[in-house]
Amino acid sequence: MVARERVFCASAPGLEGILAAELSSLGLSARAVPGGAEAEGEGAAALACLGSRVAETVLVRLWDGPASALGRARGEAERRLPGVDLLVRRGPPATVSADAAGAPMHRRGWRTRVGAAPLRETVAAAMLRWAGWDGERPFLDPMCGTATLAIEAALAAARRAPGLGRSFAFERWPGHDVARTAALRARLQATARPVEVPIAASDRNAGVLRLARKNAAAAGVEGAIAFERVDASAAAPPAGPGGQPARGLCAVNPPWGARLAEGAEDSWRALSALLSRLAGWDLVVLAAGRGRETPLPLEPVDALEVRVGGIAARFLRYSP
Radius of gyration (Cα) for the chain, nearest Å? Predict the structure, then answer.
Protein backbone atom coordinates (compact mmCIF):
# COMPACT_ATOMS: atom_id res chain seq x y z
CA MET A 1 0.00 0.00 0.00
CA VAL A 2 1.24 3.50 -0.82
CA ALA A 3 1.99 5.50 2.32
CA ARG A 4 -0.30 8.41 3.08
CA GLU A 5 1.53 11.70 2.95
CA ARG A 6 0.76 15.23 4.01
CA VAL A 7 1.85 18.03 1.73
CA PHE A 8 1.68 21.80 1.66
CA CYS A 9 1.38 23.27 -1.83
CA ALA A 10 2.05 26.98 -2.18
CA SER A 11 0.15 29.26 -4.53
CA ALA A 12 0.13 32.90 -5.49
CA PRO A 13 -1.94 34.91 -2.95
CA GLY A 14 -5.64 34.71 -3.73
CA LEU A 15 -5.41 31.38 -5.53
CA GLU A 16 -5.58 29.15 -2.45
CA GLY A 17 -9.17 28.02 -3.05
CA ILE A 18 -8.50 27.25 -6.72
CA LEU A 19 -5.45 25.17 -5.75
CA ALA A 20 -7.34 23.25 -3.05
CA ALA A 21 -10.13 22.41 -5.51
CA GLU A 22 -7.58 21.20 -8.06
CA LEU A 23 -5.83 18.96 -5.52
CA SER A 24 -9.20 17.54 -4.50
CA SER A 25 -9.94 16.77 -8.16
CA LEU A 26 -6.69 14.79 -8.24
CA GLY A 27 -8.00 12.56 -5.47
CA LEU A 28 -6.40 14.17 -2.42
CA SER A 29 -8.11 15.46 0.69
CA ALA A 30 -7.31 19.17 0.51
CA ARG A 31 -8.18 22.45 2.17
CA ALA A 32 -7.18 26.02 1.46
CA VAL A 33 -4.89 27.72 3.97
CA PRO A 34 -3.12 31.09 3.81
CA GLY A 35 -0.47 30.89 1.11
CA GLY A 36 -1.66 27.68 -0.51
CA ALA A 37 -3.36 24.40 0.34
CA GLU A 38 -2.73 21.46 2.63
CA ALA A 39 -3.48 18.04 1.21
CA GLU A 40 -3.27 14.44 2.32
CA GLY A 41 -3.48 11.14 0.56
CA GLU A 42 -1.62 8.14 -0.75
CA GLY A 43 1.44 9.24 -2.69
CA ALA A 44 0.35 12.88 -2.25
CA ALA A 45 3.74 14.37 -3.10
CA ALA A 46 4.11 12.53 -6.40
CA LEU A 47 0.51 13.21 -7.37
CA ALA A 48 0.77 16.94 -6.61
CA CYS A 49 4.10 17.31 -8.42
CA LEU A 50 2.97 15.46 -11.51
CA GLY A 51 -0.63 16.60 -11.66
CA SER A 52 -1.00 20.14 -10.29
CA ARG A 53 -1.07 23.03 -12.75
CA VAL A 54 -1.60 25.68 -10.06
CA ALA A 55 0.89 24.78 -7.28
CA GLU A 56 4.09 26.82 -7.05
CA THR A 57 5.86 24.42 -4.69
CA VAL A 58 5.12 21.05 -3.08
CA LEU A 59 6.46 20.46 0.43
CA VAL A 60 6.15 17.12 2.23
CA ARG A 61 5.22 17.70 5.86
CA LEU A 62 7.53 15.38 7.78
CA TRP A 63 6.48 16.68 11.19
CA ASP A 64 4.58 19.45 12.92
CA GLY A 65 4.17 20.21 16.58
CA PRO A 66 5.41 22.37 19.46
CA ALA A 67 8.67 24.28 19.03
CA SER A 68 10.05 22.52 22.13
CA ALA A 69 10.17 19.25 20.19
CA LEU A 70 11.62 20.73 16.99
CA GLY A 71 15.22 19.65 17.59
CA ARG A 72 14.34 16.00 18.05
CA ALA A 73 11.93 16.05 15.11
CA ARG A 74 14.57 17.52 12.84
CA GLY A 75 17.04 14.84 13.86
CA GLU A 76 14.52 12.11 13.06
CA ALA A 77 13.81 13.71 9.68
CA GLU A 78 17.51 13.87 8.86
CA ARG A 79 17.84 10.17 9.59
CA ARG A 80 14.77 9.41 7.48
CA LEU A 81 15.98 11.46 4.52
CA PRO A 82 19.79 11.68 4.75
CA GLY A 83 21.33 14.26 2.46
CA VAL A 84 18.00 15.99 1.74
CA ASP A 85 17.75 19.70 2.56
CA LEU A 86 15.07 20.28 5.15
CA LEU A 87 12.88 23.33 5.58
CA VAL A 88 12.37 24.14 9.25
CA ARG A 89 9.78 26.61 10.50
CA ARG A 90 9.50 27.53 14.17
CA GLY A 91 5.81 28.35 13.85
CA PRO A 92 3.58 28.05 15.69
CA PRO A 93 3.11 25.31 14.87
CA ALA A 94 6.71 24.30 14.23
CA THR A 95 7.17 22.25 11.05
CA VAL A 96 9.83 20.17 9.34
CA SER A 97 9.34 19.77 5.60
CA ALA A 98 11.17 18.71 2.45
CA ASP A 99 10.77 20.21 -1.01
CA ALA A 100 9.36 17.41 -3.15
CA ALA A 101 9.57 19.37 -6.39
CA GLY A 102 13.09 20.72 -6.09
CA ALA A 103 12.44 23.56 -8.56
CA PRO A 104 9.60 26.03 -9.12
CA MET A 105 6.54 24.23 -10.40
CA HIS A 106 5.72 26.91 -12.98
CA ARG A 107 8.75 25.84 -15.01
CA ARG A 108 6.98 23.45 -17.35
CA GLY A 109 10.02 23.20 -19.61
CA TRP A 110 8.48 24.67 -22.77
CA ARG A 111 9.27 28.37 -22.43
CA THR A 112 12.03 29.07 -24.94
CA ARG A 113 12.67 32.62 -23.77
CA VAL A 114 11.14 34.94 -21.21
CA GLY A 115 9.38 37.87 -22.86
CA ALA A 116 8.43 41.20 -21.34
CA ALA A 117 6.25 40.89 -18.22
CA PRO A 118 5.68 37.13 -18.57
CA LEU A 119 2.61 35.57 -17.00
CA ARG A 120 3.52 32.56 -14.89
CA GLU A 121 2.17 29.28 -16.17
CA THR A 122 0.69 28.49 -12.74
CA VAL A 123 -1.22 31.79 -12.62
CA ALA A 124 -2.46 31.29 -16.18
CA ALA A 125 -3.68 27.80 -15.28
CA ALA A 126 -5.45 29.14 -12.20
CA MET A 127 -7.12 31.89 -14.25
CA LEU A 128 -8.41 29.31 -16.74
CA ARG A 129 -9.65 27.00 -14.00
CA TRP A 130 -11.43 29.91 -12.28
CA ALA A 131 -13.08 30.72 -15.62
CA GLY A 132 -14.40 27.17 -15.90
CA TRP A 133 -12.16 26.09 -18.78
CA ASP A 134 -12.65 22.37 -19.43
CA GLY A 135 -11.39 22.06 -23.00
CA GLU A 136 -14.87 21.45 -24.38
CA ARG A 137 -15.52 24.78 -26.14
CA PRO A 138 -13.68 27.24 -28.38
CA PHE A 139 -10.93 29.42 -26.90
CA LEU A 140 -9.46 32.78 -27.89
CA ASP A 141 -6.63 34.93 -26.59
CA PRO A 142 -6.53 38.07 -28.78
CA MET A 143 -3.42 39.49 -27.04
CA CYS A 144 -1.52 36.26 -26.69
CA GLY A 145 2.02 37.58 -26.34
CA THR A 146 4.23 34.50 -25.91
CA ALA A 147 1.07 32.33 -25.66
CA THR A 148 1.12 31.32 -22.00
CA LEU A 149 -2.69 31.32 -21.71
CA ALA A 150 -3.25 29.56 -25.04
CA ILE A 151 -0.64 26.89 -24.30
CA GLU A 152 -2.01 26.22 -20.83
CA ALA A 153 -5.51 26.04 -22.34
CA ALA A 154 -4.33 23.52 -24.93
CA LEU A 155 -2.49 21.39 -22.37
CA ALA A 156 -5.54 21.34 -20.09
CA ALA A 157 -7.81 20.48 -23.04
CA ALA A 158 -5.43 17.64 -23.93
CA ARG A 159 -5.60 16.38 -20.32
CA ARG A 160 -1.81 16.32 -20.28
CA ALA A 161 -0.49 16.31 -16.73
CA PRO A 162 1.99 19.20 -16.41
CA GLY A 163 4.73 17.24 -14.65
CA LEU A 164 5.10 14.33 -17.05
CA GLY A 165 8.00 15.89 -18.94
CA ARG A 166 10.24 16.59 -15.96
CA SER A 167 11.80 14.93 -12.94
CA PHE A 168 11.38 15.95 -9.32
CA ALA A 169 13.47 15.99 -6.17
CA PHE A 170 11.40 13.30 -4.42
CA GLU A 171 12.45 10.83 -7.11
CA ARG A 172 16.03 11.08 -5.80
CA TRP A 173 15.16 10.61 -2.14
CA PRO A 174 16.32 7.49 -0.26
CA GLY A 175 13.72 4.75 -0.44
CA HIS A 176 11.88 6.23 -3.40
CA ASP A 177 9.72 3.61 -5.10
CA VAL A 178 10.66 3.99 -8.76
CA ALA A 179 8.09 1.46 -9.99
CA ARG A 180 5.23 3.16 -8.14
CA THR A 181 6.07 6.57 -9.59
CA ALA A 182 6.38 5.05 -13.06
CA ALA A 183 2.92 3.52 -12.63
CA LEU A 184 1.50 6.90 -11.61
CA ARG A 185 3.11 8.56 -14.63
CA ALA A 186 1.60 5.90 -16.88
CA ARG A 187 -1.84 6.37 -15.31
CA LEU A 188 -1.72 10.12 -15.83
CA GLN A 189 -0.41 9.71 -19.37
CA ALA A 190 -3.35 7.44 -20.17
CA THR A 191 -5.76 10.32 -19.56
CA ALA A 192 -4.31 12.35 -22.46
CA ARG A 193 -6.52 12.94 -25.48
CA PRO A 194 -6.45 14.92 -28.73
CA VAL A 195 -7.57 18.55 -28.60
CA GLU A 196 -10.79 18.71 -30.62
CA VAL A 197 -11.90 22.29 -29.92
CA PRO A 198 -10.53 25.33 -31.77
CA ILE A 199 -7.93 27.31 -29.80
CA ALA A 200 -6.99 30.64 -31.36
CA ALA A 201 -4.19 32.97 -30.29
CA SER A 202 -3.41 36.27 -31.96
CA ASP A 203 -1.24 39.31 -31.45
CA ARG A 204 -0.32 42.38 -33.47
CA ASN A 205 3.40 41.94 -32.75
CA ALA A 206 5.16 39.65 -35.25
CA GLY A 207 8.16 39.14 -32.97
CA VAL A 208 6.22 37.81 -30.00
CA LEU A 209 4.14 35.61 -32.32
CA ARG A 210 7.33 33.92 -33.53
CA LEU A 211 8.25 33.28 -29.91
CA ALA A 212 4.71 32.06 -29.18
CA ARG A 213 4.93 29.49 -31.99
CA LYS A 214 8.28 28.27 -30.66
CA ASN A 215 6.80 27.91 -27.18
CA ALA A 216 3.80 25.99 -28.51
CA ALA A 217 6.10 23.66 -30.44
CA ALA A 218 8.25 23.07 -27.34
CA ALA A 219 5.07 22.26 -25.38
CA GLY A 220 3.91 19.84 -28.08
CA VAL A 221 0.68 21.71 -28.82
CA GLU A 222 1.60 23.66 -31.95
CA GLY A 223 -0.99 21.69 -33.91
CA ALA A 224 -3.73 22.59 -31.43
CA ILE A 225 -3.34 26.38 -31.59
CA ALA A 226 -4.15 28.57 -34.59
CA PHE A 227 -1.87 31.63 -34.47
CA GLU A 228 -2.61 34.82 -36.38
CA ARG A 229 -1.06 38.26 -36.57
CA VAL A 230 -3.95 40.66 -36.11
CA ASP A 231 -4.91 43.47 -33.77
CA ALA A 232 -7.27 42.46 -30.99
CA SER A 233 -9.91 44.82 -32.33
CA ALA A 234 -10.12 42.72 -35.50
CA ALA A 235 -9.67 39.26 -33.98
CA ALA A 236 -12.28 36.69 -34.99
CA PRO A 237 -13.56 34.30 -32.28
CA PRO A 238 -13.47 30.73 -33.61
CA ALA A 239 -16.66 28.79 -34.18
CA GLY A 240 -17.43 25.51 -32.47
CA PRO A 241 -17.03 22.03 -33.96
CA GLY A 242 -18.59 21.82 -37.42
CA GLY A 243 -18.60 25.60 -37.70
CA GLN A 244 -21.54 25.91 -35.33
CA PRO A 245 -21.84 28.83 -32.88
CA ALA A 246 -20.62 27.95 -29.41
CA ARG A 247 -20.25 29.61 -26.01
CA GLY A 248 -16.50 29.96 -26.02
CA LEU A 249 -14.00 31.38 -23.57
CA CYS A 250 -11.88 34.45 -24.29
CA ALA A 251 -9.02 34.82 -21.81
CA VAL A 252 -6.68 37.78 -22.00
CA ASN A 253 -3.86 39.41 -20.07
CA PRO A 254 -3.82 43.00 -21.38
CA PRO A 255 -1.44 45.68 -20.08
CA TRP A 256 -2.54 46.78 -16.61
CA GLY A 257 -1.27 48.80 -13.67
CA ALA A 258 2.41 49.60 -13.95
CA ARG A 259 2.96 46.63 -16.27
CA LEU A 260 3.85 47.63 -19.80
CA ALA A 261 2.16 51.01 -19.32
CA GLU A 262 3.12 52.22 -22.77
CA GLY A 263 0.35 51.42 -25.22
CA ALA A 264 -2.04 50.22 -22.50
CA GLU A 265 -4.88 52.51 -23.56
CA ASP A 266 -4.71 51.28 -27.16
CA SER A 267 -4.87 47.67 -25.97
CA TRP A 268 -7.94 48.26 -23.82
CA ARG A 269 -9.67 50.12 -26.66
CA ALA A 270 -8.95 47.18 -28.94
CA LEU A 271 -10.40 44.76 -26.39
CA SER A 272 -13.50 46.95 -26.07
CA ALA A 273 -13.93 46.86 -29.87
CA LEU A 274 -13.85 43.05 -29.75
CA LEU A 275 -16.71 42.77 -27.25
CA SER A 276 -19.50 42.87 -29.84
CA ARG A 277 -18.09 39.71 -31.46
CA LEU A 278 -17.95 37.93 -28.10
CA ALA A 279 -21.72 37.90 -27.58
CA GLY A 280 -22.62 34.63 -25.87
CA TRP A 281 -19.02 34.01 -24.83
CA ASP A 282 -17.37 34.23 -21.43
CA LEU A 283 -14.55 36.75 -21.09
CA VAL A 284 -11.97 36.55 -18.31
CA VAL A 285 -9.39 39.30 -17.90
CA LEU A 286 -6.36 39.74 -15.68
CA ALA A 287 -6.58 43.35 -14.57
CA ALA A 288 -5.29 45.83 -12.00
CA GLY A 289 -6.30 45.52 -8.37
CA ARG A 290 -9.25 47.14 -6.65
CA GLY A 291 -9.28 50.92 -6.86
CA ARG A 292 -7.96 51.04 -10.41
CA GLU A 293 -10.73 51.14 -12.98
CA THR A 294 -10.80 48.70 -15.86
CA PRO A 295 -11.59 50.61 -19.07
CA LEU A 296 -14.23 48.24 -20.45
CA PRO A 297 -17.80 49.42 -21.13
CA LEU A 298 -19.47 46.71 -19.02
CA GLU A 299 -19.43 45.49 -15.44
CA PRO A 300 -17.84 42.17 -14.43
CA VAL A 301 -20.15 39.41 -13.22
CA ASP A 302 -17.46 37.99 -10.93
CA ALA A 303 -14.08 39.01 -9.55
CA LEU A 304 -11.24 37.44 -7.59
CA GLU A 305 -8.51 39.47 -5.91
CA VAL A 306 -5.04 38.00 -6.41
CA ARG A 307 -1.40 39.06 -6.33
CA VAL A 308 0.72 38.56 -9.42
CA GLY A 309 4.44 39.11 -9.07
CA GLY A 310 3.74 40.83 -5.77
CA ILE A 311 1.33 43.30 -7.41
CA ALA A 312 -2.34 43.51 -6.49
CA ALA A 313 -4.49 42.32 -9.38
CA ARG A 314 -7.89 40.79 -10.12
CA PHE A 315 -9.39 38.07 -12.26
CA LEU A 316 -12.51 39.61 -13.80
CA ARG A 317 -15.24 37.62 -15.55
CA TYR A 318 -17.64 39.22 -18.03
CA SER A 319 -20.60 38.03 -20.07
CA PRO A 320 -20.62 40.31 -23.14
Answer: 21
